[in-house]
Amino acid sequence: MQISRYSAPEFDPYGDAAPDDADGGWNAPAATHPIDAVMSLPGSKSLTNRELVLAALADGPSTLRAPLWSRDSELMVEGLRALGTGFERVPGAGGFGDDLVVTPAAELVGSTTIDCGLAGTVMRFLPPVAALALGPTTFDGDEYARKRPMSGVIQGLQALGVDLDDDGRGTLPFTVHGTGRVTGGTLEIDASASSQFVSALLLSGARFEGGLDLRHTGERLPSLPHIEMTIATLAARGVEVASPEVGRWTLAPGPIAAIDVDIEPDLSNAAPFLVAALVAGGSVAITGWPATTTQVGAQLADLLPRFGARVERDGDRLTVHAPERATDGGRGIRGVDLDLSEAGELVPNLVGLAAFADEPSRFTGIGHIRHHETDRLAALAAELNGLGGRVTELEDGLVVEPAELRGGPWRAYADHRMATTGAIVGLGVPGVVVDDIGSTSKTLPQFTALWQRLLA
């Protein structure tokens, strides 16, 4: 297995350049028979990183039970540790690592540098925390991280009076010169590029002296469920966030309560495993599926039937059954027409599934995922077309037409969801080689072991 380089290779998704040399890459196993698997998954990255920030700003120690241990979450831990937060790993009851006791600093202190890697939650959630610390904090990350949108957080903090020096770039690297306090108050930002701009300011807003009255001014707001997740985590800690109108949020200054939290399994990380049931045939069950949740991955229970799957719920187990095979030899997977503006993180895996459908599919409302770990629309089109697919880019989406795929190299672009999509394609097409399967360590370090277990 190739270990992730944690940097996005340069590529021209519209060009004719040959893929990077795949020697030493990961040979994606092809399914030789229908699968019948029951899986359990580690904790949610989105929930873990929100709870880490809130625990660091709370009025006492908190315990996170079954948090995700991955590159993104460990970068968040190290960033908060650099600002003075205390962490203690303690034995956990689950099978995916330790629990974590988080002790807030008596006084947050900067005079440090924070490595954001390629983690949007780290580069966006921690600058408001650093503004509450004393001293300068410099933020930087992987090469591609410098291309990810940051304007909503940078301009938002500057508008609140925070001394943030980015040399006018609007991206990493930049330095927050914290004074130990943020005045807060009324603020307008454009969060069209990322809902994380809103979440970042809300997570720290209760610690601002005047609280926060935040308004989104852009034409669209992607990934709204992630903002709802932020609001729910705040409410659980006694912070009341009101939304008097669409695109506006208010919260009063006050304490953030210290609580112990059980982290749900990551339902977005369940996507490649559930999709595998349709590509290989058979069924896959995920245990620990919550009855109610703010996770975007919960939409899989409604989205996969659109492709022809049958979905069952039994207690905390969600099972996906493949559709019946078509009489002409097709997999029986239906084409879809989906607006996934609220579920952009599911797009790569669902596009990989659509490549095996017997009918064309259209995915729209997802222009914002061009600014995720890589330009996911361009990358998906480039990789699938490189294997014989018929994928057309739209301004805000993709059209996927039926095609006879063949094996070959698959570039991950240091993007964990591109890597898992390569595994999905390889499940149905022998000979797919993923160049950087190690990039899955961003949110699921156990991916290859779990994938082998799936096929066993």
Task: Describe the secondary-structure layout.
Layout: E1 26-27, E2 35-39, H1 45-57, E3 62-65, H2 71-82, E4 86-90, E5 99-103, E6 112-115, H3 120-131, E7 134-140, H4 151-159, E8 163-165, E9 174-179, E10 185-189, H5 196-205, E11 212-216, H6 224-236, E12 241-245, E13 248-251, E14 261-262, H7 271-280, E15 282-286, H8 300-303, E16 310-314, E17 317-321, E18 337-339, H9 347-354, E19 361-364, H10 376-386, E20 390-394, E21 397-401, E22 408-410, H11 416-428, E23 432-434, H12 447-455
Parallel strand pairs: 2-15, 3-14, 6-7, 10-11, 18-19, 22-23
Antiparallel strand pairs: 1-23, 3-5, 4-5, 7-9, 8-9, 11-13, 12-13, 15-17, 16-17, 19-21, 20-21
Helix pairs in contact: 1-2, 1-3, 1-6, 3-5, 4-5, 5-6, 7-11, 9-11
Whole-number total of structural domains = 2
Which CATH architecture of the largest domain would you pick?
Answer: Alpha-beta prism
What name goes with the CATH superfamily of the largest domain? Enolpyruvate transferase domain
User: Tell me, what's the shape?
Assistant: globular
Strand order of the largest sheet: 2-15-17-16
Rg calculated over all Cα atoms: 22 Å
Which spans have pLDDT < 50 for at least 5 consecutive residues? 1-22
Class per helix and strand makeup? alpha/beta
Based on the structure, what is the oligomeric state of the protein chains? single chain
Tally of DSSP β-strands: 23
Secondary structure tally, helices: 12
Helix amount: 25-40%
Q: What's the CATH topology label of the largest domain?
A: UDP-n-acetylglucosamine1-carboxyvinyl-transferase, Chain
On the 0 to 100 scale, the average pLDDT is 93
Name of the top-level CATH class of the largest domain: Alpha Beta
Hey, roughly how much beta strand do the residues contain? Answer: 15-25%
Outline the biggest β-sheet.
4 strands, mixed
Distance between the termini: 19 Å
